[in-house]
Design brief:
By secondary structure, this protein is mainly β. It has a single domain, classed as Jelly Rolls (Sandwich), CATH 2.60.120.10. The protein is built from 1 helix and 9 strands; from the N terminus they run αβββββββββ. Strands 1, 2, 3, 4, 5, 6, 7, 8 and 9 form a 9-stranded antiparallel β-sheet that branches. The longest helix has 15 residues. The protein is globular. The relative contact order is 0.21.
Length: 170
């Protein structure tokens, strides 16, 4: 029980670091780069087709907590995914780590989406996305909020280019 409390406290502390960076590349005049924000204060944008460092799948809300995933250096993303979102196998060039903040996230490794290979990850779960290693994921009846950190610049390369939602005709 003590470990659960410490894990929850760590997740809440991590979630709060720098979320104000979403609305500005640098702090307002007179403020330092230190920022604190509670989870309820995160300013979620409208769901879209994903930002740099994401899968590009429509319906995902993305907040950049720290850094810029398109540039060299540490970045942290907060992703909120609604129910029934499916992300095909893809990889990123940078080494990334992720924590499930809320909901249930189903995550697997491989060159093709395989629902049987997904592992259910609930709040507090951790996983890695090693450079160039294909992975896939989905939500089911409940969505999930995921926090991902990596060292940019990042990219997203689909194992099968026909599954890349950013390259599909509208």
């Amino acid at each position: 029980m003590k470990r659960s409390g410490l894990l929850l406290a760590a997740i809440l502390a991590i979630t709060g670091i720098g979320a104000l960076a979403q609305n500005a590349a640098s702090p307002p005049p007179g403020r330092t780069s230190e920022m604190r924000i509670a989870p309820a204060e995160v300013k979620w944008p409208a769901a879209a087709a994903g930002a740099a460092g994401t899968s590009g799948v429509a319906g995902i809300q993305t907040v950049v907590l720290k850094g810029d995933p398109t540039k060299a250096g540490l970045y942290t993303l907060l992703l909120r995914l609604g129910p029934n979102i499916k992300i095909q196998a893809h990889s990123h060039r940078d080494d990334r780590v992720a924590t499930v903040i809320s909901g249930k996230w189903y995550f697997g490794y491989g060159k093709e989406f395989n629902e049987g290979a997904l592992k259910e990850l609930s709040a507090g779960s951790f996983y890695t996305e090693r450079p160039g290693v294909n992975h896939f994921a989905m939500t089911k009846s409940e969505g999930a909020t995921i926090q991902i950190s990596g060292t940019g610049p990042t990219d997203t390369v689909y194992a099968d280019p026909k599954n890349d939602p950013t390259k599909q005709q509208k």
